[in-house]
């Protein structure tokens, strides 16, 4: 673990961080010229085997080298030069596309250093790029994934879809809450809610779930209920359970309730109306609590291996709950494959208004894989996979943006610098101190 305090300083020049991928002997001839070019820094040379031309020349030149594509996710690169003759170019460009790293061929870079295109140069179906990314991150053989993703075009392939044999209407029984349907099983969710409605006398049930890329799953059973609709809106806005009961008049002894929940990558509300007897509302609350635990476990199993490349990741500033989740996923990812993370505490002086304006713009100035949280008027927390030696580049952008908002507000010169503290997780022994310092900063900021 390493903790340091520093004041931002403007660097005179930031060189582009470049990775070279699958260079053959023809491409390798360009490496000396690349090393001599001003404005770029070759940070890594990746190949498919240790005897590959680019890897061998990298060894002679003393450059970092690897034969593991997963290493492309361990550092932030500004540009990737991928050999146009690479047999796995589709796979590599699929991974780079997901990482947000633009790529060009070495020859095109040497002839024109204009802004590279961020779209894959290889024209291939999206299924191929998805399979390439999955095999790069998950390790499943690329050929197997392609076979699953693309249709069968062999001579003896069937020309019509297989006939679906009806099996009748299945009876749905939930032996335990652990076997409750997943968030992706809409039909199963409807059947499960109907079963609980019968057991508690509820006349209407709703399940609202917001997931990846703001997609929403809504399950509604029973006639519309204006009171329940209002409770759902309040639960979504306040993030707390909303339960009311009719103690007199007609109907009497009936309850309505809406219970919000959040998992690693989802948030939603479970609601029911006309629960009778009134005590039945506690069963809905207990169900929501156990479902939240089950679904959160599923979300974390899916998200942790790829973090911070999580599709459901919310852009912009995170609240305390989502930021804590990001910290936990970072620790799980480090335990899985050793990916390093750093947590930075940025403190700004004097002006709450300037920090507010900075917090509105800062998410667009950092990587989409970074996590930002502002829990105190004059400090922010930044979780990133950017290595220590790469952070000055990020720090320079933050300092420049801070100077811009300060001057826009007409505040006095000179512009005061920000104060930065850092805690890193680079090995297993760092996990506990990393979490202790992170929790201390969150509680102090809160």
Tell me what the structure shows.
With 446 residues, the protein is of the alpha/beta class. It has three domains: 14-149, Rossmann fold; 177-301, 2-Layer Sandwich (Beta-Lactamase), CATH 3.30.450.40; 307-445, 2-Layer Sandwich (Alpha-Beta Plaits). It is built from 14 helices and 16 strands. A six-stranded mixed beta sheet has the order 1-16-13-15-14-12, with helices on both faces. It has a five-stranded parallel beta sheet with strand order 4-3-2-5-6, sandwiched between helices.
Give the key terms.
446 residues; 3 domains; alpha/beta; Rossmann fold; GGDEF domain-containing protein; six-stranded mixed β-sheet
SSE arrangement:
Layout: E1 3-7, E2 16-21, H1 25-28, H2 31-36, E3 40-46, H3 53-61, E4 65-66, E5 79-82, H4 89-99, E6 103-104, H5 106-111, H6 126-138, H7 142-149, H8 186-200, E7 204-210, E8 216-221, H9 226-238, E9 242-246, E10 254-262, E11 267-275, H10 281-303, E12 317-318, H11 320-337, E13 341-347, H12 352-361, E14 371-376, E15 379-384, H13 391-408, E16 419-425, H14 431-445
Parallel strand pairs: 2-3, 2-5, 3-4, 5-6, 12-14
Antiparallel strand pairs: 1-16, 7-8, 7-11, 9-10, 10-11, 13-15, 13-16, 14-15
